[in-house]
Amino acid sequence: MTGSIEGLERFDSPGKGRGLRVTRPFKLGELLFSSPAYSYVLSVKERGCLCEFCFTRKEGLARCGKCKKAFYCNVKCQKGDWAMHKLECSAMTAFGEKWCPSEMARLVARILAKKKVQKERCVSEKILLLGEMQSHVDNEKREMNEADIAGLYQFYSKHLDMPDHKDLLTLFSQVACNGFTIEDDELSHMGTAVYPDVALINHSCLPSVIVTYNGTSAEVRAVQDMKPGDEVLISYIDLLYPTDDRNNRLRESYYFTCDCQECKSKSKVRSSSDPIEPEVINNMVRYARKTIREFRASKNLLEMCEQSLEGDGNIDGAIRYGEKILKPYNRLYPPYSLNVSSMYLKLGRLYMGMERHSMGISAFKKALAIMEVAHGKDHSYLVELRKEMAQK
Predict the structure, then answer these.
(1) d(Cα 336, Cα 239) in Å, to the nearest integer?
(2) 208 or 273: which carries more pLDDT confidence?
(3) CATH of domain 278-390
(4) Where exactly are the structural domains of the chain?
(5) Could you give the count of Cα atoms lying within 13 Å of 391 in the half-sphere of its Cβ?
(6) What single-letter DSSP state applies at residue 96?
(7) 99 contacts 89 by C-beta, under 8 angstroms
(8) What is the CATH number of domain 8-244?
(9) d(Cα 326, Cα 319) in Å, to the nearest integer?
(10) Strand pairing partners for 10?
(11) What is the C-alpha R_g of the chain?
């Protein structure tokens, strides 16, 4: 099954290498393509909250009878996951508290298990094979990869035929460069996955598309109208940072610097302005990021009452922080940013918890406007959000 995705084609992107472009027009919010994961793994901290197989979040999940650590919607999900769960099931029981592979090692173990049985191109490799994904093995990251490889041998050698060391280093590097974090509507980390076709998409600080998740599948939607020949571009990094910081991060993680229009124009503006401005921006970014971390750290938003964000011990502090954050967020993030929609969602839920319904509905509507474009109007997150809005 050789590869093609309707409306898209691989091409050589000037200055970027391989890329993806559209061959027909796409409208704002339109789905370009959906890709199942080649391999994925649920984060250990989400066990018991999400189904290991389909990532559905619900109460009353059924526990694996052997290891008692993995949870599923039903027997169908449990059977669907067994080929991957069996890599860990007996080892978790045998090692007990000492079972501690990194999420990266867990994902690589699943990729190796799948490669053994998957002899043909799979549905997540329509235009890019897993083995074709970009890799960068450097000495700085090598140490981290070596620790992951040691974990792989310690916890998985019973179930896996290990490739040679050089191939393992390459695979870990490919996953580090091309792995995707699966996040929920509030941008909480649920797991990690590899989508070879999505990995073909190049970076821009002015992205033309956004990647969101439906269960364990990745969905790529346009965040602007696109015409034939336009390159499909996502942002690899958090766009809250100033230009220099963004490029430092891109160099560190992906080994290139960005020369998009945003980087060119922002560099000019900031380099010609008052020298204090970058420091002011950095302070604002630090403030905003510290606050979002504290917002995200709390699963139950009403815990904010106990965990004061401003030291005054009540939910109003959390709300004030959220309201302050939204000013720089709206200014610094592009339209249809999930960072902005997730903050409106959190604020909306805080308002509703305080019975400030009109404020809650207003925040929910702003989140909804972004999410309809980013997730599609029929996504389960939007169905749930409309239910929340309908409750009095």
Answers:
(1) 12
(2) 208
(3) 1.25.40.10
(4) 8-244, 278-390
(5) 13
(6) G
(7) no
(8) 2.170.270.10
(9) 11
(10) 20
(11) 22
Over the stretch 321-379, which tens digit does the pLDDT of each residue have? Answer: 888 889 888 888 888 999 999 999 999 999 998 899 999 999 999 999 999 999 999 99
| Furthest C-alpha separation in the chain | 64
Contact by Cβ (8 Å): 171, 111:
yes
Rounded to 10 degrees, what is the CA torsion of 122, 123, 125, 131? -30
Please give the full DSSP string across 254-285, using - where no structure is assigned: HS----SHHHHHHHHHHHTS-TTHHHHHHHHH
The pair of structure tokens assigned to 148 is 């992951």
> What is the pTM (predicted TM-score) of this model?
0.84
Is the model's pLDDT at 190 over the cut of 80?
Answer: yes
Phi, psi of 228 (to 5 degrees): -50, 135
- For residues 265-277, one letter each, b for 16 or more C-beta atoms within 10 angstroms of the residue's C-beta and e for the rest, the string is ebeeebeeeeeee
Summarised one tens digit per residue, pLDDT across range 90-149 is 999 999 999 999 999 999 999 999 999 988 999 999 999 999 998 877 666 677 788 899
274 and 243 in contact (C-beta within 8 Å)? no
